[in-house]
Write a structure and sequence with these properties.
The protein contains three helices and three strands. It is α+β, with helices and mostly antiparallel strands. It is globular. Strands 1-3-2 form a three-stranded antiparallel sheet. Pfam families: Phage_AlpA (PF05930).
Amino acid sequence: MTDDPPPDSGLRKFLRRPDVEAATGLPTATLYALMQKGAFPRPINITPGRVAWLESDVIAWQAERMADAKARA
């Protein structure tokens, strides 16, 4: 048995800030500066005082960066 939800379950994976930093290679200050500019997805509140990013939003942001890089090449 796997811990992964079925593809159509509607469940999404949450990433906490250290996970987002590891996935993007960007430090906290840069992430928040990009969010202020509207250039990086904002986290959602998962509990009072806790935020997380949807993994799908971070993956979409990465895909946009890769597409931009390919377009400039």
